[in-house]
């Protein structure tokens, strides 16, 4: 009879109720962590980030460190490492916490193999860019030194090579930028990223210019002399 008086809850409602109670309990624990801290002046209020890490009340302009989560998305992490988040001058937290130091605990050979393959892929990526950049620089110098071959076709080749050199150079520049700087979305970092994307786009425009020249040379064999260099420069850059 007592059971008949209870409201009938669907499984989804039960799940939502359980999740809500857990979330509210975590919020209360986070607020309790900040209760014993006496801070004067503007602060960032205690909050939870996207993976439920508690960030206590903190004076503006400071960077707070917290232990890495013990368990997340089915993976155990080393809790002796730390995660960082900055309290900005306007009294708000940085949008993204820095979890770059949090390392998963390798518990089986499969995870070790995946980590090894990832490191090998990174090495191949950097080595490939390095070899490509060296070959492109040699080709660029040859085009610059051999003035006798400076026709419109080779000028297009030369500019295409230049775009690949600039893109590869900006790729290495981006790799030198600190992870926290990228996450902070600094204006100068956005400028560097924009320049890299611009050179990446010019690769395709100069390849398009190559295609236009070849199409003209094949379809209208005797019309290539009418093509103008400035048209391709405007198209490519």
Automatic annotation (TrEMBL):
The chain crosses the membrane at residues 126-146, 158-177, 204-222. SUPFAM superfamilies: Hormone receptor domain. GO terms for biological process: adenylate cyclase-modulating G protein-coupled receptor signaling pathway; cell surface receptor signaling pathway. Pfam families: 7tm_2, HRM. It is a multi-pass membrane protein. One of its GO terms (molecular function) is G protein-coupled peptide receptor activity. PROSITE patterns: G_PROTEIN_RECEP_F2_1, G_PROTEIN_RECEP_F2_3, G_PROTEIN_RECEP_F2_4. Keywords: Cell membrane, Disulfide bond, G-protein coupled receptor, Glycoprotein, Membrane, Receptor, Signal, Transducer, Transmembrane, Transmembrane helix. Residues 29-106, 121-237 form the G-protein coupled receptors family 2 profile domain. GO terms for cellular component: plasma membrane. This is Corticotropin-releasing factor receptor 1.
């Amino acid at each position: 009879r007592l059971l008949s008086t209870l409201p009938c809850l669907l499984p989804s409602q039960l799940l939502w109720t359980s999740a809500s109670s857990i979330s509210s309990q975590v919020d209360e624990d986070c607020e309790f962590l900040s209760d014993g801290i006496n801070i004067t002046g503007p602060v960032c209020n205690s909050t939870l980030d996207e993976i439920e890490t508690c960030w206590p009340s903190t004076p503006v302009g400071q960077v707070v460190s917290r232990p890495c989560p013990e368990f997340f998305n089915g993976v155990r992490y080393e809790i002796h490492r730390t995660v960082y988040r900055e309290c900005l001058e306007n009294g708000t937290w940085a949008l993204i916490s820095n979890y770059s130091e949090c390392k998963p605990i390798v518990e089986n050979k499969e995870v070790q193999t995946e980590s090894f393959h990832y490191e090998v892929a990174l090495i191949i990526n950097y080595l490939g860019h390095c070899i490509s950049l060296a070959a492109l620089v040699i080709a660029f110098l040859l085009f610059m030194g051999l003035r006798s071959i400076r026709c419109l076709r080779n000028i297009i080749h030369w500019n295409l090579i230049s775009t690949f050199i600039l893109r590869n150079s900006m790729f290495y520049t981006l790799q030198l930028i600190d992870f926290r700087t990228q996450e902070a979305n600094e204006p100068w970092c956005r400028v560097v990223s924009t320049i890299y994307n611009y050179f990446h786009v010019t690769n395709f425009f100069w390849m398009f210019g190559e295609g236009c020249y070849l199409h003209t040379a094949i379809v209208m064999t005797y019309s290539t002399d009418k093509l103008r260099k400035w048209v391709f420069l405007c198209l490519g850059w």
